[in-house]
Amino acid sequence: MKELNPSLPLEQLHSEIAVLQSEIQILQQEQATLTINNNVNSSDNDSPLAIVEAYRRQARENPQLFAELKGIDDAIATLTIQLNRKQAELARWQNQSSQITRQQQLEAAKEVAQVHAERANQLAGELAKEIRLLKACADQLSPLYWQVYYKPFITGFKTISVPYVRSDGEVWTIVNRIV
Q1: pLDDT digits (tens, 9 = 90+) for 47-69
Q2: Which of 64, 83, 144, 157 is close enough to 20 for a disulfide, judged by CB 3.0 to 4.6 Å?
Q3: pTM of the shown model
Q4: What distance in Å separates the CA atoms of residue 70 and residue 74, rounded to the nearest whole number?
């Protein structure tokens, strides 16, 4: 299978396809004109053998015309093969291009997610620090608070957690870290 030519621009590929299609159409019109002007007279009642003989007789009587028609047929077949190859190359190029575009979009989205994950981890670190400072205050105030109000100042420090984003390179996971 032919590799894609990255130096071949998309516009050039489109123009080559258009030229091939145009040339095939011109040859088909020329072929139709030559065939109509030199059509073999046969009726529906003629046998298949009679029809074959009529075409052979006309080919013997007009060898130049039939050689030209054969040349046109061969040219159309060759150009059609080239057209199919160019269209297949265009389809591969477009498919590869869309995959690259999707991959670029994915990479851009991952970069944005990375920024948010880093910010979330930064905030989680700051929040954990603030909670530890609050716990230190509570530890200092709790004995006095118990004496004055007969209840704890703050409760629930054993179950406080902050979110943290981690990655193994492919999969990102948000976990809760106990403070």
Answers
A1: 888 888 887 888 888 888 888 88
A2: 83
A3: 0.48
A4: 6
Pairing of strands 161-167, 172-178: antiparallel
Which DSSP category does 38 fall into? T
Collapse the DSSP code of 44 into the 3-class scheme (helix H, G, I; strand E, B; otherwise coil) and give the result.
Answer: coil
Distance (Å, whole) CA 163 – CA 173: 10
CA 13/CA 87 separation, integer angstroms: 9
CA contacts within 13 A on the Cβ side of 104 = 6
User: Phi/psi of residue 166, each to 5°?
Assistant: -130, 160
Element (H, E) at 19: helix 10-37
User: For the chain, what is the largest distance between any 2 Cα atoms, rounded to a whole number of angstroms?
Assistant: 127
- What is the distance between the alpha carbons of residues 87 and 98, in angstroms, rounded to a whole number? 16
CB neighbours of 30 closer than 8 A, spacing ≥ 6?
A: 72
Q: Each residue of 63-118: pLDDT tens digit?
A: 888 888 889 999 999 999 999 999 998 888 888 877 778 888 888 888 898 999 99
- Measure the CA–CA gap between 7 and 128, rounded to whole angstroms: 55
58 vs 38: CA distance, rounded Å: 9
